[in-house]
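Sample intake sheet
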Amino acid sequence: MEEILLTAQPRAVIGKQVGALRRAGTIPVVLYGKQLAQPLALQIEERTLQKVVAQAGHNRLITLTIAAGAPRLVLTREVQRNPISRHLVHVDFQEVSMTEKITTPVPLVLVGTSPAVTRGEGLLIHGIDTVQIRVLPGDLIPQIEVDVSGLENLNQSLFVKNLVVNDKIEVLTPGDEMVAKVVPVKEEVITTEAPIAAAEVEVIKKGKIEEEGAGGETPAAGGEAKKEEKK
């Protein structure tokens, strides 16, 4: 797997002043770790950081170099974004030790096709899309694939306890959490109310036309009566 590299610089700007930093295209970052006496305030160019965050997610190791210091292995701990623009606002990284297990979320990816869905009898619905795992950093995996081709019948489900992972990975999410299920397809209800309503509208329109016609003839009759009076 390709190594993910990232370079950061020490950050002196803190508090409300980081707004100017962001406007200049640089994102404030904090590095945490047991090996650190205190968290390190850092800054990274926004475009570079955006690319690395998208590539690494929360479960791929990043080799972080601070200025001219020694490389450190880190994981993305938290990502904050602007709720409207979705631009990065702040990122936290966690330094890890290759000999200590970590807890991290891993996405679930559904693969295959359910025979019940293929036959048109059911729809596949998704349950949870991530699970928490405990593992050594060197044994991290980018995702867990869930094969749904075994869901042959309606109302059949897959749960966390059915996930297939190697013995180096401990799944912490409760086993009874639903991952995928096949549910029956609901039949479309067809009604005849619309044609009936249309027929009623047509009758009403016809009566209205007749009334308007009668109303239009009244002045003519009145006019003839006036002519007779003049005579």
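Comment: The longest strand covers residues 72-81. The domain at 103-184 is CATH 2.170.120.20 (RNA Polymerase Alpha Subunit; Chain A, domain 2).
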